Amino acid sequence: MRLIQITDCHLHADPEGRCRTGFAYPQLEAVVAAASRRYPDLVLVTGDVSEDESLESYALAEQALSRLDCPWHWLAGNHDDPATMARQRPLPAALDAGRWRLLIVDTYWAGHDGGQLSDETLAGLGEALEQHPGRPTLLAMHHPPVAVGSAWLDELGLRRADALAALLCGQPQVRGIVCGHIHQAFAGHLETESGAVPVYGCPSTSDQFLRGSDEFAVDEASRPGFRVIDLRGEDFSTWVERVDL
Hints:
Number of strands: 13
Mean pLDDT: 97
Distance between the termini: 28 Å
């Protein structure tokens, strides 16, 4: 079972709208085309689909993503409007990925660039984990639940990540977490009292952020990309692929 993660498209209503280092919509098209050549069984877009929260931007995203020869889904990031997204296409809470299960964790915090885990979200995640305790599971969210080593990004991270760590203690079926928001390849761990859960970030389809930067900075030398996740039995392997423009 092959899952591909795409993230942070930052589309405008205008398909010729610019991102900082190029044009957001043609870059999404290029990433989708490259991802298709890796024959995914499922594609997930982990937020910030839009830059201007317009219905037209979500229609453009659907236009590009519908060229995939597999099911695809999305979740909301801090630049999105979840209600407008849902008008274009539903926001799932859980997905089947063969033997695996993919649980969507909502980190959207209205009016803030950072994310937050509400009591309702944490309770819902706890119930979902209790339903299938023996089924290998990945969590997907927009904001990373760990620091990524860039001071400005870490200030816009996830509030109540400690509550998530507490919830995942004693939940060995959770094999990993994938996130968006950080516009860069990343691998880290969320520490819990019963062990560490791997956390993976992904390049954006738009601009790439400079790693280890104290202040906001774009990595103009880096390219858009996507993350490949191969789910096999009880384990998985994952890597990032970059896309030439």
